[in-house]
Amino acid sequence: MPKVIINDVEMEAKPGERLVSVARRNAAHIGFVCGGNGVCQTCQCRVLAGADQLNPPTAVELAWMPERRLAEGHRLACQASIRGQGPIEILSKAEELRRQAVHVVQPPANEQWVDQLNPLVDNVLKLWVDQLSRYPFNLINAVRHAGPVRFTNPSDDVAQWVDDTFRVGSMMLTGSAAAPRVPGQGRAEAALDNAARDVRRAEAEVKRLS
Ligand code: FES
């Protein structure tokens, strides 16, 4: 089984699985507003180790993120699939921002809150300049590259989405996901994992033939 560490917690993962699926199943603090369709950008994360154990950035990521951001190791967890045995370590953008905000409110010993503010402001500004301010243009770009279908039905499995959202919230507030996933749920996610695998195969085939 591939070894995957998300936000400092080691999690079970399957070969070929997308990072967002691993995170959701384990109630990790990560965004998945669009249900893993590459639209919302809330699943953004930074790969701290094992980038070569993931598929290369997809057309959707290339459409959304400037080269600088990709070079810094940023990925969309719904586009990044496991292709090796790991170890892979990531920090979700949601968790990174949360930790930075906590440090401003409760600075570590012998530190000033003002000093803690800099990394947070820097992070938010970069996010704004690189992506948020360009959202409409990036959206058009992403539609051009990925086709409009994924944008017409962004959340394929609402029940699963709601369940996972509660589990993530519970994990953050109490340190426990409260309840395991309901068996049988997650079919839409599995379908997206399979689709991601098919896209990877098709991209490799196109590369081979060109
Ligand atoms: S979950 Fe929305 S872009 Fe990845």
Automatic annotation (TrEMBL):
InterPro entries: 2Fe-2S_ferredoxin-like_sf, 2Fe-2S_ferredoxin-type, Adrenodoxin-like, Beta-grasp_dom_sf. One of its GO terms (molecular function) is metal ion binding. Keywords: 2Fe-2S, Iron, Iron-sulfur, Metal-binding. SUPFAM superfamilies: 2Fe-2S ferredoxin-like (SSF54292). The keyword Iron applies. It holds the Pfam family Fer2. CDD domains: fer2 (cd00207). Signal peptide: none annotated. This is 2Fe-2S ferredoxin-type domain-containing protein. The lineage of its organism: Bacteria, Bacillati, Chloroflexota, Chloroflexia, Chloroflexales.
